Amino acid sequence: MPRKIRLGILGGGGDSLIGVLHRVAAHMFDSYEIVGAVFSPVHEESLAFARQIDLPTDRIYPDFDTLVAEEMKLPESERMEVCAVLTPNFLHFPMAKKLLEHGFHVICEKPMTTTYEEAKILEDAQRSAGTVFAVTHTYTGYPMVRQMREMIRAGELGRIHKVDAQYYQGWINPIIHDKEKRSSVWRLDPKKAGISSCMGDIGVHAFNMVEYTTGLKIRSLLCDFNYLYDDNQMDVDGTVLVRLDKHVKGVIRASQVATGEENGLAISIYGEKGGLRWEQERPNFLYRLSDSGPLQVYKPGHAYNSPLSLDGTKLPPGHPEGIFDAMGNIYRGVARAIRGEAYNDGEFPTITDGVRGLDFIEATVASHKGGNIWVDLD
Ligand SMILES: NC(=O)c1ccc[n+]([C@@H]2O[C@H](COP(=O)([O-])OP(=O)(O)OC[C@H]3O[C@@H](n4cnc5c(N)ncnc54)[C@H](O)[C@@H]3O)[C@@H](O)[C@H]2O)c1
Questions:
Q1: Could you tell me which residue ranges the GFO/IDH/MocA-like oxidoreductase domain spans (predicted)?
Q2: Residue of 18, 42, 113, 331 to mutate, ligand 1, most atoms within 8 A of C-beta
Q3: Mean per-residue pLDDT, 27-35
Q4: By the number of CB atoms within 10 A of the CB, which of 43, 193, 218, 320 ranks highest?
């Protein structure tokens, strides 16, 4: 058994949504140990949380700059090797950039940065550093999403015609109608979230799923946002027409005010020989549609699945695996890359996916603000 990789965590404190997912994922395949962290901008809170989860407090630092300075003083054999950036969006860029400049591997939450320009700078920094960089588009870690990618790669749908990705949530509905409440949410504050709320937070996952499963690139788009109130600067709903190629078109729909929706991410890809559909709230079912035979349902863990899908399944068929497992699969891919072991390029989203995401987010805003015009992606 290779030794564990020394992991640091930024953000992801006890009050956070995503922290527990990363901690569980890191431990899932016994590949990482958490050696240091800044869980919160308030040192006392970071220390209290470390005690609560039984972590030694000697490397729980008061802030990010101190973490880097102190870790660099340690011998390489003790120093943190990879750091997970789980803070609100505006901190991803300065933190990830400095980590790369000091030779750390980085696992970064999405959206990778708040602007496309920052994303490109980060890409250059990663190229210079030569370290591993993953962006946690969690849904790519699901076995049946991997299966979808591999079936499309193998040509099982034939020529692709149409893509349709939907990410519907409703959680902003009770907040958006109250001026005071909406100013208390960082996802609705452009200084913290970036130029988009809905597309930046969830539309970007749907975009990533289209490119991940089809292997195709979205070339241009036309977006229509809804802000619900004139004084709200951040989109809470949007519909995006996308063109991937001259004859491959589709739609990305995202909403944070789709009342009653929870985490309704769904993707359908249609081709000449059939269609594939996957829904995040029923992740163990991959539907294969055909116009010449009955509907088929693929499930994880069966030998008919691709090696990439089977690699992401831990238990025999019939044992449901979910979002923790998906993130665990991403962490496992990153561990393989850090250790210099062989891995499949679909095991974790990279900085290229992060850059594409920011290109998409900025294009949706430019399209809407330009009067719902077609905008090209790079
Ligand atoms: N991959 C996914 O599916 C997914 C899901 C949810 C959130 N996210 C992303 O994860 C990130 C965090 O989202 P969240 O919902 O957990 O946010 P959150 O507001 O619930 O938690 C943010 C955490 O960051 C900490 N923090 C804030 N400033 C800090 C600083 N200067 N130094 C250290 N810690 C600091 C806070 O104390 C808190 O613990 C966002 O970028 C979000 O887009 C991704």
A1: 145-277
A2: 18
A3: 97
A4: 218
